[in-house]
Amino acid sequence: MKKDYIRNFCIIAHIDHGKSTLADRFIQKAHVVSDREFKDQMLDSMDIERERGITIKSTAITIPYTAKDGQEYILNLVDTPGHVDFSYEVSRAISSCEGALLLIDATQGVEAQTLSNMYMALEHNLEILPVINKIDLPAADVDNVKRQIDHDLGLDSSAAIHVSAKLGTGIDELLEAIVTRIPPPAGKEEAPLEALIFDSHYDPYRGVIVHIRIFAGVLETGREIMFFSNKAVYKVEEAGIFRMEPQKTGRLQAGEVGYIIAGIKTVSDIRVGDTITQAETPCAAALPGFRDVKPVVFSSIYPVDANDYEELSQAMEKLKLNDASLVYEKDSSAALGFGFRCGFLGLLHLEVVQERLEREFGLSLVLTAPSVQYKIRLRGGGELIVDNPTDYPGQEKIECSEEPYIKAAIITPAVYLGPIMSLCMEKRGVQQDLRYLDEKRVEVVYEMPLAEVLFDFYDKLKSISRGYASFDYELIGRKATDLVRLDILLNGKPVDALSQLVFRSSAPGRARGICKKLRDEIPRHQFKIPVQGAIGSQIIARETISPLRKDVLAKCYGGDITRKRKLLDKQKEGKKRMKMVGNVELPQSAFLAVLKTDEN
């Protein structure tokens, strides 16, 4: 098809504003699947996405559409995630499109991630189409949302399309607006091939399946292609477009979005953001790729069974294909053996990666407590970047420590402002700005340490505001902090996998929380087990797991007290000897309990 009749667009919005539901209506309208095969969240193919009701992966699909004037169009739609942890997925989807539908919930209005995603789309010069969704709900306030579009977003609210993705209201008008207001793709078919890799996944039978957007030239089966980053050359075995299942076409031209299979078994040859060109007549320069992802949360992943390390290594390599924001390197622990130190974009990203490794690759895993990257200035000169507590030097070697700070923007109904400000101050936040967006909504901006929002900040924020507050953040640099390493001792021995880097004044509360959790999770042994939290040689928290005890006096019916005392002393000696040689069993649930510890 001529590129004048192709439209590439994505749906962007704050979390839970109805992106996947709108994509479902587009799919139904185009009869891409039969009514019998249709189910909700068609593009959310992973079990985790369906269970949690969120989109994790950007998903592309090609939809045929006949406009009112009778012209046939091809619409390449990319459904994107809404959670801040998956903003890298959104940026990659945006780079393969010419337009974006900015979806706004008629009951919630403009929220933090709405703004963030709109700015991302503007950076890529996308045509933005505001869409007001959920107009069928009793709480919908369309007039107020239109004021917010004008005032907060600086867009023309009169051009906004009103839809109900659930009922299908306004979908025809929206499809017409897509073909009339979103520009067709540029790029010449006669030019040398330029294709951008925006995603990929691994098929055990076909190798790597590469998702691409063609910016110039033509890609056909049987041709040899070259990856710009490593000059690897492959022969295209299959090319096609995305329907609900990949559909073979044999040819992709400038402006189209599709996939290729080229028998790529070497997973490391593929890099998201790389450019594909023809081997015999390459293009002059690579396309601008994606910005390098910067992980903010770090945790180590270990297999429960040390023999599964090779399987974990292969699984990480294959998952990296499908999740370009995952960063990892080899790691080892005295308690847990060999594993990987991984970088994530947030705590939800960490949970999703863990669940995908366990479900898709059948692995049993243990994760260490998440941490952020600290900069350590040493007394003798020099600097260290530390994200793993085991790499933390002794306190006597450190001149000062710096931790990453974020600028957090929270948009909330004014009625919840007081409790939210208290929560931010509790998390060492410093208020930078406060402004009323209208008579009911407030935007408050805080600078706070990233480490403080890792564990429970988002949950507490949603609880305080009854789900109405929205949260978005960006890294702004590092500031000085009073950092200490909190060690957890079991039976007097430190367990390196449970160590954490914490702010000094938060350490006692964190240590008490961890010790209480471990006391409940570690099974009782034949001997008494002290569970201690320590900073250096100073013990700051302690819990005791009482021993299992055999009743050695059960056989004594009366008799002299000296006989009973003799039996008890003999048992006490045996317990002492057992304690000296006994090892404490640490179940997998104990590591998970530390991740969910609550200081309060």
Overview of the structural elements:
Helix 11 packs antiparallel against helix 13 (588-595). An eight-stranded antiparallel sheet has the order 11-10-16-7-8-15-12-13, with helices on one face. The chain is globular, with a radius of gyration of 28 Å. Helix content is 25%, strand content 33%. It has 13 helices and 31 strands. By secondary structure, the protein is of the alpha+beta class.
Query: What is the CATH class of the largest domain?
Result: Alpha Beta
Helix run count: 13
Structural class: alpha+beta
What gross morphology would you assign? Answer: globular
Arrangement of strands in the largest sheet: 11-10-16-7-8-15-12-13
The number of strands is 31
N-end to C-end Cα span: 62 Å
Provide the domain count.
5
Mean pLDDT: 80
Largest sheet: 8 strands, antiparallel
What is Rg? 28 Å
- Relevant CATH superfamily of the largest domain: P-loop containing nucleotide triphosphate hydrolases
Give the proportion of residues in helices.
25-40%
CATH T-level fold name of the largest domain = Rossmann fold
Strand content: 25-35%
Question: What would you say the CATH architecture of the largest domain is?
Answer: 3-Layer(aba) Sandwich
Return residue spans where pLDDT drops below 50 for at least 5 consecutive residues.
none
